[in-house]
Amino acid sequence: MDKEQLLTYLEDFISEERKERFISVLNNRTNHITVALEDVFQMHNTSAVIRSCDIFGIQEAHLIQNRNTNELDKNIAMGAEQWVDVHRYKNSSECITELKQKGYQIIATTPHDDSVLLRNFEIKEKVALFFGTERDGLTPAVLEQADRFLKIPMKGFTESLNISVAAAIILNDLSDKLIQKNVAWQLTEAEKFEKRLDWTKKSIKSIDDILERYHSKL
To answer: Which of 62, 70, 86, 124 has its CA 20 to 30 A from that of 47?
Structure first.
C-alpha cells in the first residue's frame, strides 16, 4: 500500500487547519526524552503525566504494571492519550531492557543522596525519566539499574511532590534545555509521517468505513 497516497486521500476528510496543526505539533515532538511510570496507583496521576507529555512535546510514555493496573482517566488526560504513544510492560526489568536497547539512559527521579539537582542536570544523550509510586517511590529494580539520579530542589518542610506535578516540572525544564542543545532531538521525517497518518485516522469519524472504501478502489 502507498501510505503517502493513503494520507493524501484521508486528509480530504479533515480541515486544512487540522493538517497544519499536526505538522506544527510534530515539528516540536521528541523521542530524545521519554517517561516511564512504575506502578503508579492513582490513575488520575498517570493520566495527568500523559497530558504533560503531550504539552511538553514528549511522544512516548511507558507504563509499568508490577502490581497496579495503570488505566487512564480520559477526563484528566483530556485526549492526550490519542497523541502520545503509550507502551505497557508487566515489570520494570522488561521496560528498562527495552529502553536501554534503544539507547536511553535510565534516569531515576528520587531524593537519593547522589541525585543531581534539576537545574544542574545536563541532557545530551537520550534519557528515560522514571517516576515511582506516590508513597514508596521507585523500586530497587530501577534504582540499581539507573544510570543517573535526578531530584527537584525543595525549600519547605514537605519533602515530596505529587508525581504528576514532579513530572510536569521536570519535563518543562528538560524540554526547554533540549531545544537549546546541538543534538538531533526532533522526530525523523519517517516518524513524523507515521504520526501524521495515525493522527489523521484518529481524527476521522467512521474511519473503518472510509478505509474500506479506499481499499475497494485499489
So the answer is: 124
